[in-house]
Hints:
By secondary structure, this protein is α/β, with parallel strands linked by helices.
Amino acid sequence: MKRKIQVVICRVCSQGVPVLDVDKLAKTAAEAPYVGSVVTVDYACQSKTISSIVEDAKTKEADRVLVVPCSKKDVSPSLFQAYVRRGKINEFLIETVDLTNEVILPHREDPTRAQEKAEARLAAAIARLAALEPLEKHEEPMRTKNLVVIGAGVAGLEAAQVAAGHGLHTILIEKTDRTLKAPGVLLSKSRLLRAKGHGGNFELVIEAGEKEETLECAVIVVASGGDWSQGKGSLTRSCKEAMPLFRLKDSIDSGTLPSGPVVIVDTPDPKGSTMKAQDFAWDDALDLAMIAKRASPETDVTLIFQEMRASGLSELTYKEAAQLGIRFIRYDNKSPPTIDEKDSKRLIVKDLAQDEVVSLRFSTLSYASIPANPDNIGIADALRIPISLDGGIRRGSMQRGPVTTPRPGVFVCGSAMFPKPEAVARAEGKAAGILATQFVASGTVEYGGAVAEVTPEKCSACLTCVRTCPYEAPFIGAAGKAEVRTQLCQGCGMCAGICPSKAIDIHNYTDEQLSIETEAYLRGGF
């Protein structure tokens, strides 16, 4: 096939910080093999500019494009869409060179070094692009547009309501027998047992009461929430009246105010032998301390903590709480708060800020810890998604989205990851509902492209790839060799990197293609 490259250089992005000589970059690109056109423009992402450079690609019969100097996420999607739709260029033959973050910003004080590095980086990118092969994506129809939400708490209900408002049929799986007003179908006293399939076409096995049922769905939202600690720690052993934060809130909401000083500790286990800082509900503790103080201004309210992660707008809440007269004491788990041996209504703690031991009399002792839901282990195992060391569901990279998981079609929100205030949990539930709706909007599953492929002649059927892949894409086929389910493969490259026989390649990331790019770098002195 022909290999004719169009290089597009954007002056605005290249010279936002005046470091690079764009004309010299253009000359370097023009002299490189396989380059048929070099276009220097002022604003590459403007609609008029997009039309002209796509037309240039058609006229010069370019079959691949290199855009300089932004990362792919910084370039307008309209540019890539125009090349694919109007320019008829394969989407896997459109590359970018991020000179902004790789060259301009790190070397803004050394223009000579920046120019040398930019030219070497450009030459390597051109060499790599010339070595790439056009790839194809395939489509598979979704059998259903069902959305399954695991957990009917604040975040789960919000996700279901948003998705139902956009026409999805929602099924909520709730382990309790609470009576809830929820859209779609509510399966009480139910839990997820097993799952198979992939995003767009999942098949779940649910335990509903004493029966097992099979559900088909296109997308899943994990909103399993946290699990309020029931008091495993030194403080609760020493003070039987200590209560979790939610019970104190229920008491205040019902009109029963504390009769004396209130002390809220971040955890019933200050030594940290059973819980970590990840488990603490800082926002909830702040909110409840303020509620108690406003309800009874003369009551002393004290918050005792190792860390107060009042981030974002919560910083204003922290400031307001201090202005209300709420006392904050920070401690170290090497000198944790303890109950006075002679007085079970007195707490002894070393204040790190004041470097002194403080004795606090209290009538109400509460703790604000929300360990991860123990059900997360079974959910993560069934869905093949990662779990954090603290037991929360791990989200995917920020490039995929804030409530995504590494597995397409599975989203996570609320305290299933780590403790969140209600407003944040609700917002994440809404985001998960919107992303779930967008995921099923086309009615098809797209797969393929830069995925793994096995060379059967090299495969020794050692099962290393099968054991390693987090997505369960490789399997041993009828011929006794490894094969890849392309619908499940995410192109992460783990199998290719670990295969002892070097039998697996990722399309457009083969050893040969990577070597070509590396050699071009080395010729440029890098």
